[in-house]
Write a structure and sequence with these properties.
alpha/beta; seven-stranded mixed β-sheet; 5 helices; 7 strands
């Protein structure tokens, strides 16, 4: 897939204010500081599209971007940032949950996992919740360039082993580095495949 256009559309914390659900939509979410904004900018080849920050927890709204005029990429707030006020965390979890469970055109959730770390309980718990609710998802291991190949293999394999304790089979997985643009073609090709499969479903809504 070639990204020809990537436009910021809207930011909000209410499902009712999201764009009309007439196109496939792909959400990106993960622990704070997992490299989500950098990944989105790498995928769209636009380093200014999603706001990056050295301060974790910067994204606090549902951010919609229209890609190639025919599908949405969504930047969701990160989870697991301890310094965010408890009241804010509760509010975030509320509208994020509503979005994930009720957004009609949500076609896949890309869960970002930091490849520098051993399996984190908060990631596993989030994945389990998506599975229980029947929400389709994929795993994206980030920051592959920040560890040695052996560390990367050890951490990703440990994560897969942890998932296999409760899952019969593993979801689609991607291995990425925003700095080196690793995994870009694989993720975009996967989205392109899904878009083609979903095209008949969305024709009637346009």
């Amino acid at each position: 897939m070639i990204i020809k256009t990537a436009e910021y559309i809207i930011s909000n914390n209410e499902l009712s204010k999201c764009p009309k659900p007439n196109m496939p939509e792909y959400a990106f979410i993960g622990r704070s500081n997992v490299g989500k904004s950098s990944l989105i900018n790498m995928l769209t080849n636009n380093k200014y599209l999603a706001k990056t920050s050295a301060q974790p927890g910067k994204t606090q709204l549902i951010n919609h971007f229209l890609i190639n005029k025919n599908w949405y990429m969504v930047d969701l707030p990160g989870y697991g940032y301890a310094k965010v006020a408890k009241t804010d965390r509760k509010a975030w979890s509320g509208f994020i949950k509503e979005y994930l469970t009720k957004r009609q055109n949500l076609s896949n959730v890309f869960i970002l996992v930091d490849s520098r770390l051993e399996p984190q309980a908060i990631d596993i718990e989030f994945i389990e919740n998506l599975g229980l609710k029947g929400i389709p998802f994929s795993i994206v291991f980030t920051k592959a360039d920040k560890v040695t190949p052996s560390e990367f293999s050890r951490n990703t394999e440990a994560f897969e082993d942890e998932m296999l304790k409760t899952w019969e089979e593993l979801p689609k997985m991607f291995y990425t580095s925003s700095t080196k643009k690793q995994g870009r073609d694989e993720i975009l090709s996967y989205i392109d495949e899904l878009n083609k499969l979903l095209a008949p479903k969305f024709k009637e809504f346009r």
